[in-house]
Amino acid sequence: MNAAHDPLMPAACFGTVFHERHAPVCNRFVYPLAFLRLPLSRLGELAVPLLGIERANVFSFFSRDHGPRDGTPLLPWLRALLERHGLGEVAAGEVVLQTMPRMLGHLFNPVSFWFCHDRAGALRVVLAEVSNTFGEHHNYLVHHCDLRPIRAGDELRAMKVFHVSPFFPVAGEYRFRFHAAGAAPTVAIDYWEGGERRLSTAVGGRARPLDGRAMCAWLLRYPFMTLGVVVRIHRQALRLWLRRVRFFHKPLPPLEETTR
Questions:
Q1: What does each C-alpha distance from 169 to 164, 173, 236 come to in angstroms?
Q2: Record's superkingdom (predicted)?
């Protein structure tokens, strides 16, 4: 199997982020995006031109940007979290982190995904690590109630407990669908509140082997991507504010770092 098609192999993915607000006003946009897929057991052996692992480079991945955010190794932290929730044995295989790296030192990741597999390579649990523009973070831990493998298109739900957009309340639920295998991994998230679908989002891209050619292509195509993410978030927020969409003030973040 080509490494770019193997969901357990390192990859750079080039694609788009899609966002469509259904209510109370309609607002739709699609932006180009790139992201990494990093098997955590192999972080120490990665040597990719332009990409620094725990060191500064044009692109950089630092453990301090994820999980406990203290710079400690991520895999032991994730294993301990799974154990606390009784998921350590069922998801004892490879963990693949899907995220954006720092670019020239800048970073904002609206959401990163930790794909937790069993020893046979089947996807069992996903940790969605969500960040808002206030510097806060929260994790949603999703899986099937009977812990069966997560297949492409399966719908997994989580109650919304963390403030992200000031134009939606902290209420309702997220509905996740993962297509993590194959050459074009995709995650779709719908937000439902009051019995209605309020928001549809999706992020996906075509996977390429994680090497110097992929990182050069990334730099040439999206030289200001991480800064662009923040600019686009505020641009869309301004559009909604000008359209007089109801504004919700930020509540205190949840006491627990992870919601299951």
A1: 9, 11, 17
A2: Bacteria
Place of tokens 């902290």: 170
Q: How far apart are the first and last CA of the chain?
A: 34
Cross-strand pairs, 115 = 96, 126
How many other C-beta atoms can be found within 10 angstroms of the C-beta atom of residue 223?
Answer: 12
Q: What are the tens digits of pLDDT across the range 198-230?
A: 999 999 999 999 999 999 999 999 987 877 677
The CA distance from 48 to 212, in Å, is 6
Q: pTM, whole model, 2 decimals?
A: 0.93
| Owner of token pair 């991994």 | 185
Tokens representing residue 42 in the block? 């192999």
Q: What does residue 236 show for φ and ψ, rounded to 5 degrees? A: -70, -35
Q: Are 16 and 23 in contact (CB under 8 A)?
A: no
Residues 225, 243: Cα–Cα separation, whole Å? 27
CA gap 52, 80 in Å, rounded: 26
- Ramachandran region of residue 203, left (φ > 0), alpha (ψ -120 to 50) or beta? beta
| Secondary structure E strands in 41-121 | 51-53, 59-61, 95-99, 102-103, 111-117
User: What sign does the CA torsion over 237, 243, 245, 247 have?
Assistant: positive
Residue showing tokens 């490494």 = 3
**C-alpha–C-alpha distance, residues 215 and 217, integer Å:** 5
